Amino acid sequence: MTADHVLRALRAVSAERAEDALLSVRGLTVRFRLRGGREVAAVTDADFDLAAGECLALVGESGCGKSVLASALLGLLPGNAETSGSALLDGTDLLAADEKTLARTVRGRRIGLVPQSPAAHLTPVRTVRAHLEETVRALTGTRRGERRAAAEAAAERAAFPAGHLDRHPHELSGGLAQRAATALALIGDAPLLLADEPTTGLDRALVDRTADELRRHADRGKALLLITHDLAAARRVADRVAVMYAGRMVELAPADRFFGAPGPRHPYARGLLDALPEREFTPIPGFPPELSDLPEGCAFAPRCARATEACAQRPAFRAGVACHHPHGAPGAVRA
Ligand code: SF4
Hints:
The chain is α/β, with parallel strands linked by helices. About 35% of the residues lie in helices and about 20% in strands.
């Protein structure tokens, strides 16, 4: 085991202790009310803690609820959403805070957002320098004469080259747009970075570089919540991995145990890894259920080779997994 692995394992243990958590999420639930009385169960009973200097990767297929969870933390859900539970960030419950509090004290200042599709997030008619200087002004109150230097320092922190600061978003490569977005996310010196699918649309080399850069921010003491469907990126960055399926967290595990031995315990999580080209390249059969029409029992049962009659009852989340027959459990059924 390398020193890096030992460090990550220690961080994972530390973050499991709620008293060390910077962010503590309990019972986070999001429902969308649709016309005709229908309800979409986007997120149900999510529980996790995240410590300073730690990266938690929240993984799962598109539509599993992970981006809705991120939007709930930022107070950016649409008007038909109802949330319950709590999400304490350094004493502030993000789910109970009003819009004024979120806008003035949370977004940018206590949570830095590294967005999906960063080029689309930037205003097309403004240069990267103008974006940075405006954000420096808004978040730090730096005086006009000092903003240029502050913007250049922010660019440097995210490894954005100074020679490209006067370019417009359409003149940036995918990697540079990502770094510009990361530079903007770092300006408020927020203790929590929330990266929502930051590697979408990037080629493998850029994915690796972006992942490594995010890891460096965690190593400098930021808590990093990485929302991704890219398991290779998660493996590169994460101390712990949380897997979501059909709006619920089904496994939460230290990254070294998840990606190495003994491997994931939940059949869905194991299926996600087995579907990777560098592993067995075996897709999970079937499709996820509609979040507006979830079954009573385990939502993964129709796709699960280990399902038994017991799975008609929804499994509780215990000891890091929500499954009646997890891999590695004494007496578990064989797939
Ligand atoms: S509870 Fe049953 S159906 Fe669900 S994942 Fe576990 S074994 Fe499969």
